[in-house]
Specification:
One of its GO terms (molecular function) is 1-phosphatidylinositol-4-phosphate 3-kinase activity. This protein is an alpha+beta fold. It starts with a helix and ends in a 6-residue tail after the last strand. The model is unreliable at 42-360, 617-622 and 1420-1424 (pLDDT under 50).
């Protein structure tokens, strides 16, 4: 036929094919084409071709040898090289992994496209592919098989072209393909790429006569299989179909095929001796012929230059790596190939090498749409299953777990019997309350019975008690003393108020419904999955890019075809190499700006091959020659192929490298597509304990930040970790510089060797990147390295299978968190589209490798601890009693591990034994796990230690969760911040700890509420459960983002299982917080004046108030704080830097709930500090020590924002001190005066002093242990009831506040003279201060006793970096607890810290500096009716009408300075006796000033004339003159109208204060001098007083602590003695046992707190024969010291083995 007809056929083929592809109807187009072609093929035979590709290795070099066989029809043998044909497209599929597929006969499918049609030689084929059996060759002993892609020429005859089979041809894998490794990174980055497949190549190879390529070929024997049945189906038995969508992709069969070769032919015949289709005999005869021929002949036949035999993998070795081809050398060849050369050898490729890791189809056909990859993640699937099972266990009809109400929290300790309190019961149907006094040991049921009797109810089962003002209920079976609310009321001296509700009136706001149960049964994984930080490319977009790339590649191939077929090199100018490169560049840019080294090398080879085409016009193939035949491998010299064929191979490699990039991208991000790759060898799973050495390959670092340009070179270190423990050795890559590709990158090409069998189940690889700079030294440059970041990946997945293949790892900022597991999840970096990213390859074995399972756990042997010798027992006890962060010596660890079976009954020893274990690989796990399983149960709080990241083993963590589950719900809330942080250290998403959190949330709305806000504040955005923060996070937040996905999963799971009611409550709280944050931002951005800010605040709060009326909700502070609105008029803001909002919420009972909303400060530290103080208070209460601690709730609701509970009736210390002026911080009386003002009665004042002393002691201990700094007087507050407490904990754990280089926090804690003034009751030390010191020491030792709990909680927070904590922070707490000291020594140390804090003047100076800094925020705080010295407003109805007021006299006083006070005689109606009040002239001036403000038209006598006086004002003359002025003022006042003289202001001024009720003579002109007063009742010759001593005998040492002395007499001259104590251990004739304390100057109540030591070996029997004498002396520098008293103690009267502290009376002793 003419060329025009041929082109017409070709054009028709193209049009039909494009139409079919566009409509997904390719089969229809092919069938139509077959029908048209059938008529023109009747006189011709179809042929096919195959190409066998293999790889060899010898002497660390690899050669890829590709040979091609082709057999053409005899009549058209001369036309093969002249006709250009088009390759038939194939379905998208590729194969890099292969299962163990049996050799079966595929069913005939003649009607489908790409099917194989079998016909006899006389019958024409109806398909493009025909497996006909032509007549055998007479001159050959064996038949031959020819695979050839045929195409009709112009007259309908079948022709073949060297380029008719592209990588998208019909055959991809025919013989010997396996998938031991489907990755390309196991080689040097500078080498060519290789794959593990044997690929049919349809190109003719024209060797050059003068060019050879050496190759090393392993020798393998031929294998045979019997062909039975119809010979026409023999080929189908020889070729097996791969399990993919490619209908013509076959696996290797047991029958290996060969074809003869002809030097004059374009094609070379392969394996002709094994061609069953060319034999005219039956299958039975074929086997014998083949076998006979196999045993005869030479390797190199005259017409067969190559004879490759491919060993079909046996069932035992189906996953071995067939990358080496063999030459059959005779019958003695082994049936299986020799061991393969090492994978890490650098491959060297022939010029014509062609590599593919996937099947040869178009790229866009290999990328198929699928469900999101997360749906195939075993960890996420297990998490989803866990959530569904957890939800199904808590049904709506279970009243215990679905009560729908909040239970009031309880305490572990209760009050002893005999403590009673007043109860106030509010009944919903009664206006009056029911009031009665009740013993706190009474049960709630008893209270209900009493109330029912009062209101006339018969049954109490229909009623519940609720805390008044809160939505929390009491349980009938509990006693009142168990409830935290009751304790708070007693602590603050408030009435205990409850509300009585009928069951019908109880609102079950959080109860789940049957509809919730039905809906939650269908929770899907999509409902739980959060959004990714980066939106990956879609399947459609990727297809467009890949199609563009394919078009550019096909255009180059088409040009090469034209050059090769026509022999014209004029078309070389049409080679668009730049277009291919640009298309690849676009693909790399869209797929994360990542350019693997494989793409770079493939493009470089491609461009070089295009340049070499003009140089290869004469290209004749040379005959192969065996160069070396030693051992199992043969070295063969091969001829080269044309450059045009090399271009084709380069195009293949471009496709392979792009597919590799797509594969890594799929691993990294959650995409909607995947590569159509088959699974690994099916049914083959090996244990990791069976494997040995492997290498992890570290490739390139992409997307280098611009600020890395300052470094001269870079280095990577690789280390495997198990938890926080490094395993093996760390490897470092040589220093390298940047390498240019499309964009700058770093090429490391490093390998990290490791032993697979020694890997623990939870191990991970950590890779650290360093930047290196060189500074000029004297002799040579000095390198300085800086850690730039790190990357990590878990080595085993959730199911225990080892991770294999290529991965992209994000580079996280440099910090210590790299040593903390687990590895970050892929695709979770918040800057995923711009952060540096590292490509690595984990070894691919070609089959699944799993961590072995332990079937049974045998009970370990347990030995009696007492059977050990005493020294070993003591050593073990000392080791296990150390705090959890002590670092035992190596010898101690060895002893601990060796004697572990003696410690099974010591719960506290388990963490230390586990840390002493040397190995956690599979061989050690049975012993370790059985030990954990049978160990004595740990306390739930102590078991929190096992959740630290240094305990990564899943069994250990699961056991810890089992023990922690014994916590009550209230305890669980107390420790929930640490439990949530421990969730970050779990190895996988589906963990027992996550299940525990969901279980507790389903059973307790309180737990669910706290868990919700703990998760929310860790996550970015206003709705963290739905979105990821699109803004660029702060550097400190980038490291935290590694945990965002896990926290979002748990948060979304919590929302999914909580039920509709609780879910709506969470959403309404979230809206409330969002609204408050907006108001706070608006207040900050408004004009810098009070009026504008208040207007903005009012407008914003009115909007929120309206929304709360429509939809009431709970506050984040507590689920029991249910609010229905805001009292806008009383809300305001604080004039500080962040302008916190003070908001007064209201509830249904019209109770005010004050709260602070703060934006701009990180409240995590405040939350953690308050949690620790609250836990310390519970520890003290548990030991019976009530320190009247005031704590408050603090809930971070997001990044640098949160809500704080506002403590009412409290004032800052600065405002209290400033009432005495700017220098009030240096005075002693401000706090005492303020307390006296708010507690006018003597009883109230004494109660306030008691509260102050206890709370001050508690906060001294807490602030010292926690290292709380920045303690200025605005961060210390005081309630009117006397309770002192601290606020604002932004600086803690020793992070001192600095003023430039000036350290402002210089004392262990804040204890000033004005505080001591309140405690002592004056300016002199008293016995009350001893009580204060004892409270501090007792509280400190209780905290030390439970120090492990404090340290564990801090470490759980510090390990994740929460709240800015570090390991150094925890070390600070550890050192503050003084772990090496005894209780007595620790008490003495703390007492010295009390003295150092009290004596330091710097604290008061710091207060003064803060007063100066806060002047701009100061204002008149006494505006209104309220007088500064009277806290409340009193009226005539309360006080009684005044009849007369006159000035009785004035009196001189000392306190300590001299001043005058005026005595007023006041008469009231209905009071027969007058009362006397004491007022200062300053108070009269303030009173007169307030009258002028309130009544500006009133003409009142002015006191201003004498208010300012030149010279001394506190003298008698001035006082007398002022008394006259005061009389005139009072006379004019009571001559005014009743609206003025009987106003509330007047009655407030004349209200009796505390000083008015104290005993004082009104007739004395001045109070007696203190010195003279105490001399009246003092007898210096009478010995009196007491001494407090601590005595304890331990380890042959008698410890005596002199604590306090109280009640000493004054000296004869009226002065206080300067005391010291001498101690003797009698009998002691030589006075060798003399010990004495330091001197305490001028104190009748000295506090020493000094420890004295006596070494007395011999045990208790010897020491009990002695006496202890203690004497007190007055120290005098000028004369002899004076004896003040003493005591003698008989030591046999005490149990010295126990610590004893007691007071002993002083008397005369022999001295």
């Amino acid at each position: 036929m003419s060329g025009f007809s041929q082109r017409d056929h070709e054009r028709k083929f193209k049009e039909d094919l494009e139409t079919a592809q566009a409509l997904s109807l390719e089969s229809l187009a092919l069938e139509k084409f077959r029908l048209e072609r059938e008529k023109s093929l009747q006189n011709f035979e179809n042929t096919s071709s195959c190409n066998i590709e293999s790889r060899t290795n010898k002497d660390d070099r690899r050669f890829q040898i590709i040979t091609q066989t082709q057999r053409s029809s005899r009549s058209f043998n001369t036309q093969i090289c002249q006709k250009e044909t088009i390759s038939r497209p194939r379905p998208g599929s590729f194969n890099t992994k292969e299962s163990n597929i049996s050799i079966i006969k595929p069913p005939p499918q003649p009607g489908r496209r790409c099917s194989v049609t079998h016909s006899t030689p006389s019958t024409p084929s109806n398909d493009l592919i025909s497996f006909n059996s032509p007549s055998g060759s007479k001159h050959n002993k064996t038949p031959e098989i020819a695979f050839e892609l045929s195409e009709p020429d112009s007259i309908g005859r079948t022709t073949s072209s060297p380029f008719q089979s592209s990588p998208h041809g019909l055959y991809s894998h025919v013989i010997g393909q396996t998938a031991c490794n489907n990755n390309l990174l196991g080689q040097s980055p500078n080498s060519q790429f290789y794959n593990n497949s044997f690929i049919i190549n349809h190109l003719p190879r024209h060797p050059k006569a003068d060019q050879k390529v050496p190759a090393v070929l392993p020798v393998m024997s031929r294998q045979h299989s019997k062909v039975s049945g119809d010979p026409a189906w023999g080929i189908l038995e020889a070729l097996s179909k791969l399990p993919n969508s490619n209908l013509i992709d076959f696996t290797p069969s047991a029958r290996e095929l060969t074809t003869p070769s002809n030097n004059k032919s374009v094609r070379v015949s392969l394996l002709e001796t094994f061609d069953p289709l060319l034999s005219g005999s039956s299958s039975d005869g074929l086997e014998s012929d083949v076998l006979e021929e196999d045993l005869e002949g030479s390797i190199y036949e005259p017409y067969d230059p190559f004879d490759f035999l491919y060993s079909t993998p046996s069932s035992e070795s189906c996953c071995s790596e067939p990358i080496y081809s063999t030459i059959n050398k005779g019958p003695s060849s082994p049936s299986h190939g020799p061991p393969l050369p090492p994978r890490n050898a650098t491959p060297v490729y022939a010029v014509s090498s062609k590599v593919q890791i996937k099947s040869q189809s178009r790229l866009y056909q290999n990328v198929v749409r699928n469900q999101r990859s997360a749906l195939h993640d075993p960890d996420l699937m297990a998490f989803h299953k866990m959530v569904v099972e957890c939800r199904s266990s808590y049904l709506y009809d279970n009243e215990l777990t679905n009560s729908g109400i909040i239970t009031s929290p309880t305490l572990e300790n209760g009050y002893t019997t005999g403590v009673s309190a007043k109860l106030v019961i509010h009944c919903s149907n009664m206006e009056k309350t029911v009031n009665f006094t009740c013993d706190l040991s009474s049960s709630v049921e008893h209270v209900l019975c009493h109330v029912a009797f009062e209101i006339g109810c018969v049954s109490i089962t229909d009623y519940k008690l609720k805390v008044h003002g809160l939505e929390e209920f009491l349980e009938p079976h509990r006693s009142l003393s168990e409830y935290e609310y009751v304790h708070e009321c007693l602590k603050l001296d408030k009435d205990i108020e409850f509300s009585l509700l009928n069951n019908n009136e109880v609102k079950k706001m959080f109860q789940r419904t049957p509809e919730d149960d039905r809906r939650d049964c269908f929770i899907s994984l999509d409902d739980l999955l959060p959004k990714e930080p980066m939106q990956p490319i879609s399947h459609e977009s990727l297809l467009i890019l890949l199609e563009t790339l394919e078009k550019e590649i096909e255009r180059v191939i088409s040009t090469c075809k034209e050059v090769h077929v026509n022999g014209s090199y004029d078309s070389i100018s049409n080679l668009q190499t730049g277009s291919v490169k640009q298309a690849v560049k676009v693909v790399c840019s869209v797929l994360g700006n990542i350019e693997p080294l494989q793409i770079t090398n493939a493009l470089d080879d491609f461009i070089q091959a295009c340049k070499e085409i003009p140089l290869n016009k004469m290209n004749i193939r040379t005959k192969p020659e065996i160069v070396d035949d030693d051992g199992d491998y043969s070295e063969v010299m091969l001829g080269e192929y044309p450059s045009s064929n090399n271009i084709y191979d380069c195009c293949d490699r471009i496709r392979d490298s792009v597919q590799l990039l797509i594969q890594m991208y799929c691993h990294m991000y959650r995409v909607d597509f995947q590569l159509s790759a088959p699974m690994r060898c099916a049914g083959v799973v090996k244990n990791s304990s069976e494997l040995h050495d492997r290498d992890i390959y570290i490739g390139c670092l992409h997307r280098i930040p611009s600020d890395w340009g300052v470094y001269d070179s870079f280095r990577v270190d690789a280390q495997i970790y198990h938890g926080t423990r490094p395993l093996g050795t760390k490897t470092s890559a040589p220093n390298i510089s940047g390498s240019d590709g499309f964009k700058p990158r770093l090429v490391f090409a490093a390998k990290h060797p490791y032993v697979v069998s020694s890997l623990p189940r939870e191990s991970r690889i950590v890779i650290v990147v360093y930047g290196i700079t060189y500074s000029d030294g004297q002799n040579q440059p000095t390198p300085q390295q800086v850690e730039l970041g790190w990357a990590s990946i878990q080595l085993f997945d959730y199911n225990g299978y080892i991770n294999q293949g290529n991965f992209l790892l994000s580079i996280w900022p440099a910090d210590n968190s790299k040593k903390i597991g687990p590895a970050p999840n892929p695709g979770t970096h918040p800057l995923g589209d711009s952060d540096p990213i590292l490509d690595i390859q984990l070894p691919d074995c070609g089959y699944e490798v799993s961590f072995p399972e332990i079937d049974t756990l045998e009970k370990p042997k347990s030995y009696d601890f007492d059977s050990l010798d005493c020294a070993t027992q003591q050593q073990l006890l000392d080791t296990i009693n150390q705090d959890c962060f002590a670092n035992p010596k190596v010898t101690e660890r060895e002893v601990l591990w060796e004697k572990r079976h003696y410690l099974l009954n010591h719960p506290q020893a388990l963490p230390k034994v586990l840390l002493a274990a040397q190995n956690w690989d599979f061989s050690c796990l049975p012993d370790l796990h059985s030990m954990v399983h049978y160990w004595a149960e740990m306390d739930p709080v102590s078991a929190l230690q096992l959740l630290l990241p240094c305990f990564p083993d899943n069994v250990v963590r699961n056991k810890a969760v089992e023990w922690i589950n014994r916590l009550t719900n209230d305890q669980f809330v107390d420790y929930s911040p640490q439990i949530v942080q421990a969730l970050k250290y779990e190895n996988y998403e589906a963990s027992p700890l996550a299940k525990l959190l969901l279980d507790r949330s389903l059973s307790s709305p309180r737990v669910a509420h706290h868990l919700y806000w703990l998760l929310v504040h860790e996550l970015p955005g206003d709705t963290p459960q739905n979105t990821c923060d699109a803004a660029v996070p702060e550097k400190s937040r980038v490291c935290e983002a590694r945990y965002f996905r896990r926290l979002q999963l748990v948060l979304r799971a919590l929302l999914a299982v909580s039920g509709d009611a609780l879910r709506k409550a969470f959403m309404s709280q979230q809206l409330l917080v969002k609204g408050l944050a907006g108001v706070a931002d608006n207040v900050k951005t408004s004009k810098d004046d009070h009026k504008s800010r208040m207007t903005t605040l009012t407008q914003g709060l009115h909007t929120i108030h309206s929304s709360l009326i429509a939809s009431p909700t709970c506050l984040p502070l507590s689920p029991s704080l249910f609010v229905t609105g805001i009292q806008v008029r009383s809300s305001s803001y604080f004039p500080s830097n962040t302008l916190p909002l003070k908001i007064n919420f209201t509830n249904e009972e019209e109770t005010i709930i004050p709260a602070i909303f703060k934006v701009g400060d990180d409240l995590q530290q405040d939350m953690l500090t308050l949690q620790m103080i609250h836990l310390m208070d519970k520890l003290w209460l548990k030991e019976g020590l009530d320190l009247k601690m005031v704590t408050f709730a603090c809930v971070p609701t997001g990044f640098k924002k949160g809500m704080i509970e506002l403590v009412s009736e409290a004032e800052t210390l600065r405002k209290i001190q400033n009432e005495f002026g700017l220098t009030g911080s240096f005075k002693d009386r401000p706090i005492a005066e303020w307390l006296a003002k708010h507690n006018p009665s003597a009883l109230d004042y004494e109660r306030a002093v008691h509260n102050f002393t206890a709370s001050c002691a508690g906060y001294c201990v807490a602030t010292y242990v926690l290292g709380i700094c920045d303690r200025h007087n605005d961060n210390i507050m005081l309630k009117t009831s006397g309770h002192l407490f601290h606020i604002d904990f932004g600086k803690f754990l020793g992070d001192a506040q600095m003023f430039g280089n000036f350290k402002r926090d210089r004392t262990p804690f804040v204890l000033t003279s004005d505080m001591a003034y309140v405690i002592n009751g004056g300016d002199k030390p008293s016995a009350r201060f001893h009580h204060f010191v004892d409270l501090c020491c007792q509280a400190f030792n209780i905290v030390r006793k439970e120090g492990n709990i404090i340290l564990n909680l801090f470490m759980l927070m510090a390990s994740s970096g929460a709240g800015g904590l570090t390991v150094d922070s925890v070390r600070y707490v550890q050192s503050a607890l003084l772990p090496t000291l005894t209780n007595a020594e620790a008490a003495a140390t703390f007492a010295r810290k009390i003295q150092s804090s009290l004596k330091s003047w710097f604290t008061q100076f710091n207060f003064f500096l803060h007063n100066l800094a806060q002047l701009r925020f100061s204002g008149d705080h006494n505006v209104g009716e309220l007088l500064s010295f009277v806290p409340k407003v009193y009226s005539v109805q309360q006080e009684g009408r005044l009849k007369s007021v006159e000035v009785f006299n004035y009196q001189k006083r000392y306190d300590p300075e001299k001043y005058y006070i005026y005595i007023l005689r006041v008469e009231r109606a209905n009071q027969p006796d007058p009362s006397y009040l004491f007022r200062s002239y300053k108070e009269f001036c303030e009173f007169q000033h307030k009258i002028c403000i309130m009544f500006p038209l009133a003409k009142c006598y002015s006191l201003q004339g004498t208010s300012l006086h030149v010279g001394r004002s506190n003298i008698k003359q001035v006082a007398a003159k002022r008394m006259v002025e005061i009389k005139k003022f009072l006379s004019s006042l009571f001559l005014m109208a009743d609206e003025i003289c009987h106003s509330d202001l007047v009655y407030t001024f004349f209200h009796p204060l505390l000083r008015d009720q104290q005993e004082a003579s009104i007739h004395q002109a001045k109070l007696k001098d203190r010195k003279k007063d105490r001399l009246v009742n003092n007898d210096p010759y009478i010995i009196k007083g007491q001494i407090s001593l601590y005595i304890h005998y331990e380890k042959d040492t008698l410890w005596v602590m002199v604590q306090h002395v109280q009640g000493l007499n004054y000296l004869p001259n009226g002065q206080e003695p300067s005391t010291y104590v001498k101690v003797y251990l009698l009998p002691d004739p030589t006075k060798d046992t003399k010990r004495k304390t330091k001197v305490i100057k001028k104190s009748c109540h000295p506090s020493f707190m000094e420890m004295l030591e006596y070494r007395v070996p011999g045990g208790l029997e010897r020491i009990q024969q002695r006496y202890l004498q203690a004497t007190v002396w007055n120290y005098d520098t000028l004369q002899e010291n004076e004896f003040l008293g003493g005591t003698v103690i008989k030591l046999s009267d005490f149990d010295l083995a126990r610590e004893t502290t007691d007071w002993y009376s002083l008397g005369n002793v022999h001295r």
